[in-house]
Amino acid sequence: MRTARLAALAKINLDLRVLHRRPDGYHELRTVFQTISLADGIDISFAPARRTQVTLESAVEIPDNLILRAADAVLAATGRTGTLRFALRKRIPMGGGLGGGSTDAAAVLLALPVLAGQDLPWERVLEIAAELGSDVPYFLYGGTALGLGRGTELYPLPDLPARPGVLVAPGIHVSTPDAYRALGRELTSVPYSPILNTFQSLVWSLERGFLPGLAAERHGGVSNDFEPVVFRQHPRLRRLHGTLRRLGAEPARMSGSGSALFGLFPTRQEAERAAAALPGETVFPITLVTRRRYQARWRQSLREHIAMDAETSAWPLRSRYSR
Ligand code: C5P
Predict the structure, then answer these.
(1) CB-based contacts of 239, cutoff 8 Å, min separation 6
(2) Tens-binned pLDDT, residue by residue, of the chain (323 aa)
(3) Distance 130 CA to ligand 1 centre (A)
(4) Which of 77, 183, 186, 247 is least enclosed, having the fewest CB within 10 Å?
(5) Whose CA is nearest to atom 21 of ligand 1?
(6) How far apart are the CA of 228 and the centre of ligand 1, in A?
């Protein structure tokens, strides 16, 4: 029996712009993904056997759980069979724009080939990830990353420092397809240039390792195109955003299509003070997690099962059971 205790970390979108609706029904995006310290816990165990049997234990019922879909896809691609068990401790709020289901799926894509002893071509892993959901491929890399297209075309950005912050989960479930529909973007391929111009300014700042404040206050700052439509539907979110700003968060934004809001602070003390000033809200202390740290955590979780490469920073990880 090969076992591992995994941490599937959440993401925030430091910035998210929606350009146009595409012929395939998805929207063309420009986004900056960032890993945060909030995580689901997943215990995984695999024992090779002639027949495949997969079970998932979880205190919360999750319909159409991406963990099981990811496991089926990996076993089919590797051709391995066995007894596979998952125990999920769900901590990332669902329907919050934090990629909770996506990071769980990516965790399976990273860990299961290692445990099953069959490394897959990385292109195949990326392909399976994109089939599972638009946010899944990002979690195969982590850190600060630029997402284009559906959000599945990824490029590394220099890691931002591990800044402290707070995450507010207001318990409002925003439907992602509804939020996209509410934007009312045209079916067109003409680039929406004002959006692209300010997004480029932001990425050039990030390239220098500098995270600007809010777009409204400083040219080239961070923005989220979903905020106006989602805040209109849920005025409580607009008020919470205002509160985070007053408490000194810079920047404060909604993540993805909502409803979670994050605020970053210069120090842990200021973040803690802000959390204490939000009584009655579900607030999580968070830290930004670099790609280096993200990949090091993966290496640590799977250390008993990975091949010891001469290069300790090799990514993706390779199985020690591979034949
Ligand atoms: O890929 P995923 O299943 O996460 O997407 C959920 C829904 O969000 C899609 O069915 C689509 O309505 C919308 N979406 C979109 N454009 C994207 C990503 C998601 O329109 N780039």
Answers:
(1) none
(2) 999 999 999 999 999 999 999 999 999 999 999 999 999 999 999 999 999 999 999 999 888 899 999 999 999 999 999 999 999 999 999 989 999 999 999 999 999 999 999 999 999 999 999 999 999 999 999 999 999 999 999 999 999 999 999 999 999 999 999 999 999 988 876 666 788 888 999 999 999 888 987 654 455 689 999 999 999 999 999 999 999 999 999 999 999 999 999 999 999 999 999 999 998 999 999 999 999 999 999 999 999 999 987 677 889 999 999 87
(3) 11
(4) 186
(5) 150
(6) 19
- Per the annotation, the verdict on 225 as an active-site residue is no
How far out from the chain centre does Cα 183 lie?
22
**HEC sequence for the chain:** CEEEEEEEEEEEEEEEEEEEECCCCCEEEEEEEEEEEEEEEEEEEEEECCCCEEEEEECCCCCCCHHHHHHHHHHHHHCCCEEEEEEEECCCCCCCCCCHHHHHHHHHHHHHHHHHCCCCCHHHHHHHHHHHCCCCHHHHCCCEEEEEECCCEEEECCCCCCCEEEEEECCCCCCHHHHHHHHCCCECCCCCHHHHHHHHHHHHHHHCCCCCCECCCCCCCECECCHHHHHHHCHHHHHHHHHHHHCCCCCEEECCCCCCEEEECCCHHHHHHHHHCCCCCEEEEEEEECHHHHHHHHHHHCCCCECCCCCCCCCCCCECCCC
Residue from 288, 218, 294, 301 nearest 255 by CA: 288
CA-to-CA separations, 101 to 23, 60, 94, 239, in angstroms, rounded: 26, 13, 8, 27
Q: Which of 30, 173, 180, 229 to mutate to test the pocket of ligand 1 (most atoms within 8 A of CB)?
A: 180
Closest ligand 1 atom number to CA of residue 257: 8
Q: Are strands 82-89 and 53-58 parallel, antiparallel or unpaired?
A: parallel
309 is catalytic: no
